[in-house]
Amino acid sequence: MSWPASSTGAEPLWAVVGSTGTGKTRLAIELARRVNGEIVSVDSAQVFVGLDIGTAKPTPEERAMVPHHIIDVIPPTTQWSGASFAAAAEAAIAAVRSRGKRPILCGGTGLWLRALVRGFFEAPPIREEIRAEVRRKLEVLGAPAVHAELAVVDPVAGARLHPNDTQRIGRALEVFLETGVPISRLQDEHGFRQARFPWRAIALDWPRERLVAHLDARTRGMYQAGLIEETRAILAQGVDAAAPGLGAIGYREAVLCLSGKLTEAEAIEATVIATRQYAKRQRNWFKHDAEVEWLPPEASVEAVLGVLST
User: Fold this and answer.
1) Which of 31, 129, 193, 294 is deepest in the core (most CB within 10 A)?
2) pLDDT tens-digit readout, 69-80
3) What is the per-residue pLDDT across 33-56, written as a single tens digit (0 to 9) for each?
C-alpha cells in the first residue's frame, strides 16, 4: 500500500527506537510529559489484545500518565502488516496533532517505522491456492523447514527472517511462488523512497554485555510473572496455537512448553536466546538509519530534547 505525501505539515516526527529492553517506554513517557505529547507505539507484538507479559506492554499506570495509541488493537488471531500499521499510525498522528499535542513514536519494529515514514512495498495479489499451499506447509512441516525452503529461493530474505517468524516466512514464500521473483528483490527495488514524513529519532546505546544480562533477567522475570499461565489462558479461549499473536517471542516457546515439546527450563532458555538475537537484529537495523542518534543509556530527557530539536 502507498499513500500520497503527508499533508500534516513539515514538523518532524520524534521517535524513541532501538533494541528491546533498552528503556524506550520509560524515556518516551518522560519525553511526552515534557512536551505535551502522546505516544504512538511502533511494536508489532503490543498490538495484540491479551498478550501483556511477554510483550512488556506499558503498565496501566504508565498509560495513565500519557495516552498510548496502537496498543491492544487486534486479537491474537489477526494478522497485521506494516501497511496496516502505517495506516493506523497516520490516523493516530493526525488525531494527536489535531489536539495540539506532539506525537512521540516509540518502539523497535523497524520495518513498521520505515513503512510509516518512507512508504511501504505493496506485495502482489496472491492466489488462494498458493496461500493454502503455504499454510499447509507451515502446519505440516513447521516454520523452520519452510524457512529453509525460502532460503534456497531467496537467500536475502532467509537471512533477514528468524526461522520461527511464521507470518513473514509465509508471506515471502507466497510472493515467490506467485511471481517467481524473490520478495527481497522487490522490496529493494521499492527502496522505501517515498519520504512521507520527516523524522528524527534517538536510540539508547547499551554496552552489549550489560544489555545481554538485562535481557536475560527480564525474560526470566516474565516467566516468573506468569507468561506460561497467560499463554494457557489465551489458548483456553479457543485461539489456535499457530495464531499470529502466539508466534511472538516468548509465546511461541510457552506454547511449546504447554504442548510438552519443551520443559519450562528449556522454554526459558529458548526465549532468552531468541530475545538476544532479536535485540541484535533491531540494533543492526537502526544503525543503518541516518535519522537515528545514539545516546548513552543514562541519557537525560534534556539531552534527548537537545538532539530531537536540532
Assistant:
1) 31
2) 999 999 999 988
3) 999 999 999 999 999 999 999 999
- The CA radius of gyration of the chain, in Å to the nearest whole number, is 19
101 Cβ neighbours under 8 A, 6+ residues apart: 36, 37, 38
Q: Report the distance separating Cα 51 and Cα 245, nearest Å.
A: 8
- In the predicted model, residues of the chain with pLDDT beneath 50 are 1-9
Residue 283 near residue 208 (C-beta atoms within 8 A): no
pTM of the model: 0.80
Instruction: Return the ∠ at Cα 24 (arms to 205 and 7), rounded to 5°.
Output: 110
Q: What are phi and psi of 287, to 5 degrees?
A: -65, -20
- Give residues with Cβ within 8 angstroms of 23, minimum separation 6: 204, 297
Asked if 297 and 27 touch (Cβ cutoff 8 Å), the reply is no
The three-state DSSP-derived secondary structure of the chain is CCCCCCCCCCCCEEEEECCCCCCHHHHHHHHHHHHCEEEEECCCCCCECCCCCCCCCCCHHHHHHCCEECCCCECCCCCCCHHHHHHHHHHHHHHHHHCCCEEEEECCCHHHHHHHHHCCCCCCCCCHHHHHHHHHHHHHHCHHHHHHHHHHHCHHHHHHCCCCCHHHHHHHHHHHHHHCCCHHHHHHHHCCCCCCCCEEEEEECCCHHHHHHHHHHHHHHHHHCCHHHHHHHHHHCCCCCCCHHHHCCCHHHHHHHHCCCCCHHHHHHHHHHHHHHHHHHHHHHHHCCCCEEEECCCCCHHHHHHHHCC
